[in-house]
């Protein structure tokens, strides 16, 4: 009966929230026709600029967007999504975080097997899942970027040695190199075509891609533009250095794989032992399960196992 009541309350709250959002969207569409027409005309004027001059909206809900603009963490979240190349709005992500957090909270709130305060932990876990997905996509994109960058630098050096200007070289690389690096080169070529100075283009490139190799490339390019010199030789040496660094990073990753596997085995070992005891000697582990203080010991053990797993993963993670 209690579970059914919780489900009814959750579904009713979700429906009320949906109705409120629909009403807000209707009011916004009803009374914002003039501003929408103006914004549409401005969007048509800037459509040919590749989206570089348009300001991205945080959310389609005006009230929620006004609230998000007051939070400092929103800029960091938006930057993470840009680095992950996810075409999502900040409002959609934050609402998804609240929805998942509320769902997890409702599922574990009245559970007799969980200790007090589990609802707050479940809310944090549910709200953290979208951020974990964004961070994972960001790391995958950065790894692909690092793998493509040395070859792109060699191609850039060969094109400049053949007499192509750097803007033309950016455009060629943007059309030939696959994503994610090709997308960044196309964006740099568009900025140069719109009249942005080289310094600003390079600074924007560094702000979008938080990679040390990009900082070295930008520093070498700007130094050559100001002081002169043979940029092609610098790019070739930089590409060779980055390739050696990637090989060293792969060796370190292979050596640390054993430590990661050990941490995974030690994390799963207590769970395996508990399952075996439950199947073979239920009377021993039943004392832990059915005792009034048993659930506190169980969840304390789970928390210690998770903390140990995180510590092991942190130890074997070596940055090159």
Describe this protein's structure:
- The chain has 320 residues and is mostly helical.
- The protein folds into 3 domains: 103 residues, no CATH class; 106 residues, Receptor-associated Protein; 65 residues.
- It starts with a helix and ends with a helix.
- It is built from 13 helices and no strands.
- Let me know the largest β-sheet: none
Rg (C-alpha, Å): 27 Å
Helix tally equals 13
Q: Could you tell me the mean pLDDT?
A: 77
The poorly predicted ranges are 31-55
Q: How many separate domains make up the residues?
A: 3
Highest CATH level, the class of the largest domain? Mainly Alpha
Q: Examine the secondary-structure arrangement and name the CATH architecture of the largest domain.
A: Up-down Bundle
Q: Give the helix level as a range of percent.
A: over 70%
How many angstroms does the end-to-end distance come to?
A: 56 Å
Q: Which structural category fits the helices and strands?
A: mainly alpha
């Amino acid at each position: 009966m209690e579970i059914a009541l919780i489900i009814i309350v959750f579904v009713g709250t979700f429906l009320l929230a949906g109705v409120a959002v629909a009403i807000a969207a209707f009011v916004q569409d009803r009374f914002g026709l003039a501003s929408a027409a103006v914004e549409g005309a401005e969007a048509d004027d800037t459509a040919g600029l590749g989206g570089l001059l348009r300001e991205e909206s945080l959310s389609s809900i005006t009230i929620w967007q006004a609230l998000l603009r007051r939070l400092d963490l929103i800029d960091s979240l938006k930057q993470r999504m840009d680095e992950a190349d996810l075409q999502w709005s900040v409002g959609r992500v934050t609402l998804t975080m609240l929805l998942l957090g509320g769902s997890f909270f409702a599922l574990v709130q009245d559970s007799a097997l969980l200790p007090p305060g589990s609802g707050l932990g479940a809310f944090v876990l549910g709200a953290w899942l979208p951020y974990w997905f964004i961070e994972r996509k960001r790391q995958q994109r950065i790894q692909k970027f690092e793998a493509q960058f040395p070859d792109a630098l060699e191609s850039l050096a060969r094109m400049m040695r053949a007499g192509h200007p750097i803007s033309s070289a950016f455009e060629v690389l943007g059309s030939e190199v696959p994503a994610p690096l090709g997308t960044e080169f196309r964006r740099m070529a568009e900025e140069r075509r719109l009249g942005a100075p080289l310094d600003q283009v390079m600074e924007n490139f560094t702000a979008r891609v938080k990679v040390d190799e990009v900082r070295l490339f930008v520093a070498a390019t700007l130094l050559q533009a100001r002081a002169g010199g043979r940029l092609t030789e610098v790019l070739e040496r930089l590409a060779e250095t980055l390739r050696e660094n990637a090989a060293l990073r792969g060796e370190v990753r292979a050596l640390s794989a054993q430590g990661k596997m050990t941490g995974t085995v030690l994390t799963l070992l207590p769970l395996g032992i508990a399952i075996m005891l439950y199947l073979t000697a239920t009377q021993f582990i039943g004392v832990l399960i059915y005792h009034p203080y048993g659930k506190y010991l169980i969840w304390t053990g789970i928390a210690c196992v998770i903390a140990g797993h995180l510590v092991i993963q942190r130890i074997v993670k070596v940055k090159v």
